[in-house]
């Protein structure tokens, strides 16, 4: 009587590895889809608001930006932070002065970049809650193009709103991260963003 040889163990480990590949592929595909969706949202933001880049200083911008002498120099940044009604906004103006001088283009570009970051944060926040990329994309798209955002994005003086949103959403995401990891580092990050908001 001939004996049938036992199945080698090698085959089992191969099967196990092959079984884990589809799961890894699905995770990679999900993450890749999220990055593509976020990039598409940022492109949509730039398409919608690019015409604001050629605008000048208007209304309150004339008082808050060019005429606000304390933010013309980064050495005055500490004084600006301590002696200001909206210190974070005014500090951002100081940084813009440092980078762009008195050119409105740079100030408008900063507003546009902050709004794009907010849209990406809304996308990642909703994706984290629902784990569904299309739902997160749709929510972030509505947030990106909703007419209520026009004042805050195209009007330099409206930066206080988009800065608040930026730090508030970042704080919310950091807090969700803390609830999962219970890490002191993540909690500290949450506190910093929350205070800035």
Structure in words:
The chain has 197 residues and is an all-alpha fold. The protein is 75% helix and 0% strand. The chain contains 9 helices and no strands. The longest helix is centred in the first third of the chain and has 41 residues, at 9-49. The chain starts with 8 loop residues before the first helix and ends with a helix.
Give the number of DSSP strands: 0
What does the overall shape look like?
globular
User: DSSP strand (E) fraction?
Assistant: under 5%
Major beta-sheet overview? none
Uncertain stretches: 11-16
Cα-atom Rg, whole angstroms? 24 Å
Q: Average pLDDT, to the nearest integer?
A: 83
The helix content is over 70%
Determine the number of helices (DSSP H or I, runs of at least 4 residues): 9
**Terminal residue distance:** 81 Å
What class would the helix/strand composition place it in?
A: mainly alpha
Q: Helices and strands, in N-to-C order?
A: HHHHHHHHH
Write the layout of secondary structure elements.
Elements: H1 9-49, H2 60-64, H3 77-82, H4 87-100, H5 104-130, H6 133-145, H7 150-154, H8 159-181, H9 184-196
Helix pairs in contact: 1-5, 1-6, 4-5, 5-6, 5-8, 8-9
Task: Provide a concise account of the structure shown.
This protein is mainly α. The protein has helices at 9-49, 60-64, 77-82, 87-100, 104-130, 133-145, 150-154, 159-181, 184-196.
Write out key terms for the chains shown:
197 residues; mainly alpha; 75% helix; globular
């Amino acid at each position: 009587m001939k004996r049938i040889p036992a199945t080698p163990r090698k085959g089992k480990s191969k099967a196990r590895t092959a079984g884990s590949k589809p799961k890894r592929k699905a995770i990679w595909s999900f993450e890749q889809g999220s990055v593509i969706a976020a990039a598409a949202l940022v492109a949509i933001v730039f398409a919608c608001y690019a015409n604001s880049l050629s605008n000048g200083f208007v209304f309150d911008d004339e008082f808050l930006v060019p005429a606000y002498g304390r933010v013309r120099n980064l050495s005055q940044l500490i004084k600006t932070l301590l002696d200001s009604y909206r210190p974070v906004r005014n500090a951002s103006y100081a940084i813009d002065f440092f980078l762009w001088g008195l050119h409105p283009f740079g100030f408008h570009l900063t507003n546009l970049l902050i709004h794009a970051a907010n849209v990406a944060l809304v996308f990642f926040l909703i994706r984290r809650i629902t784990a569904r990329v299309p739902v997160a994309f749709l929510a972030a798209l509505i947030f990106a193009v909703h007419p209520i955002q026009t004042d805050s994005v195209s009007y330099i003086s409206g930066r206080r709103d988009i800065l608040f949103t930026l730090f508030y959403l970042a704080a919310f995401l950091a807090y969700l991260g803390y609830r999962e990891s219970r890490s002191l580092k993540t909690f500290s990050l949450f506190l910093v963003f929350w205070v800035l908001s």
